[in-house]
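Long-time lurker, first post. I've been practising inverse folding by hand and with some scripts of my own, and I keep getting stuck on stretches where the structure tokens seem ambiguous. Below is the full token string for one chain I'm working on. Before anyone asks, I'm not after the true native sequence, just a reasonable design that respects the backbone. If someone could post their per-position residues I'd love to compare against what I wrote down in my notebook.
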């Protein structure tokens, strides 16, 4: 597997770990549609996912998922066999099963599961809820989906809320006492925030190649006036001559030795 893909999946997992308390071993909740796609693409789920995540994962399913797959009969026989192999997690619907989609939705309410499904409707519904993590198969390749917009919005709002007014005031007070902020409220550090290229130190600058080329080209035109003008111009562009320090001969001799 490409390293970049591994990096990407780890980055996404990290996001869910940091912002939504996902923890190792990551629990992957698998439904029959995912198994069906794996079967069609001739991949072994466990092998592929272990390769893909390269971290501790736990594959599981629920009774509701199995019952729904069984009820669909022949077209899903293979997928049903596969899904039954995973650890069956208690879902709270024992004795009164619900649809696989409903079950998964209720499961993800309280616990952190990476939902492995090809069910587009279910994916859409889960994307609308912050903190839901989706895995699907693109042909034979597992893809951990980037956090949904709902997740991103939630996280950015949460990070803003984490800085309530009181803490903000405290920070202001600390800044003032540290002399970072004037009493007018204007931050003196704001000047430092300036980004973008700084003006180069004129003393340490070489003349740019462009300038050199221009000068030589125009000189070739051999017009005396322009030559003079250019000389005047380039003189202003040139760095000031450095004062030469005369080294006395006896010192030179010592240095040579
Ligand atoms: Zn259930």
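-- Answer (accepted) --
I ran through it position by position. Result:
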């Amino acid at each position: 597997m490409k390293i970049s893909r591994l990096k990407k999946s780890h980055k996404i997992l990290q996001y869910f770990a940091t912002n939504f308390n996902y923890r190792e071993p990551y629990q992957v909740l698998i439904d029959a549609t995912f198994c069906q796609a794996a079967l069609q693409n001739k991949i072994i789920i466990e092998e592929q996912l272990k390769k893909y995540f390269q971290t501790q994962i736990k594959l599981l399913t629920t009774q509701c998922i199995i019952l729904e797959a069984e009820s669909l009969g022949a077209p899903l026989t293979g997928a049903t066999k596969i899904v039954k192999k995973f650890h069956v997690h208690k879902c709270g619907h024992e004795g009164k099963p619900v649809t696989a989609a409903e079950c998964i939705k209720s499961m993800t309410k309280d616990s952190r599961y990476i939902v492995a499904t090809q069910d587009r409707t279910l994916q859409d519904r889960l994307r609308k809820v912050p903190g839901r993590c989706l895995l699907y198969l693109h042909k034979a390749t597992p893809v951990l989906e980037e956090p949904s917009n709902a997740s991103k919005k939630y996280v950015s709002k949460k990070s803003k809320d984490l800085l309530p007014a009181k803490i903000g005031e405290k920070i202001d007070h600390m800044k003032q006492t540290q002399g970072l902020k004037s009493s007018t409220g204007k931050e003196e550090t704001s000047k430092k925030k300036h980004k973008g290229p700084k003006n180069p130190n004129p003393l340490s600058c070489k003349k740019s190649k462009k300038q050199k080329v221009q000068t030589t080209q125009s000189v070739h035109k051999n017009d005396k006036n322009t030559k003079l003008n250019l000389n005047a111009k380039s003189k202003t562009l040139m760095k000031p001559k450095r004062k030469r320090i005369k080294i006395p001969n006896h010192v030179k001799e010592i240095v040579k030795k």
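A couple of notes from the structure itself: Residues 3-20 form the longest helix (18 residues). Residues 185-192, 212-224 have pLDDT under 50 and may be disordered. Happy to go over any region you disagree with.
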